[in-house]
Amino acid sequence: MARIGLEHKRTLFVRLAEWGSRRKYGQVLDPGKAAMHNSRVLTTMLLMEGSAARWKALDPGLKALAVMVTSARIGCSWCMDFGYWEFHHQGVEQAKLRDVPRWRDSDVYSDLERAVMDYAEAMTATPPEVTDEQVERLRADLTEAQLVELTSLISLENYRSRTNAALGLTSQGFKETCELRPVK
Questions:
Q1: Residue 27: which residues within 8 A CB-CB, separation 6 or more?
Q2: Which of these, 23, 15, 58, lies nearest to 156 by C-alpha position?
Q3: How far apart are CA 113 and CA 127, in angstroms?
Q4: What is the CA radius of gyration of the chain?
């Protein structure tokens, strides 16, 4: 149950944000509903997400795994639900998304994917537990631009997941809609 009301004053700005969310996702996202209580926070969130969506140096599959592992480590059920839906629609293999909570024991990941997930967990620890060895392992396969993007993406997901978990936001049922569609 959300720790903050998800109903808000319906200003023109809020109505536009709701329209944009419904157009893109089919419904208004709960993190957006929460942010609508503070127009400056909402504006910053929208600008940040819009800018991050244009980051293209890193492989989308690696991005998905970094985001999902971060969400799982923090325990954000909203982020896990939405992430599964989002990355499913981007073509990431369902088995890889499904196995994220037990990635260390799964055999569906490549060595690079495991290195990315290990790095995401180390970055998400408090305090961060990133080692020189982890970074050097990633540098063997990633350019510096990709490594910077990966690091920034994990930081962004820490922001999202920690905010959503603290506000008590839980699943909106996105994952269930993925299970209804056959995998291509």
A1: 21, 172
A2: 58
A3: 23
A4: 17
Token look-up 């506000």 returns 167
Q: Where are the domains of the chain?
A: 12-52, 60-179
User: Mean pLDDT across the stretch 21-48?
Assistant: 94
Residue 157 has which token pair?
Answer: 């997901």
Residue 23 DSSP SS3? helix
CATH of region 60-179, choose from 2.30.110.10, 3.40.50.2300, 1.20.1290.10, 3.40.50.10490? 1.20.1290.10
* pLDDT score of 31 more than 90: yes
For residues 84 and 178, the answer to whether their CB atoms sit within 8 Å is yes
Sign of CA dihedral 15, 52, 115, 89: positive
Determine the length of the chain.
184
- Whole-model pTM: value is 0.91
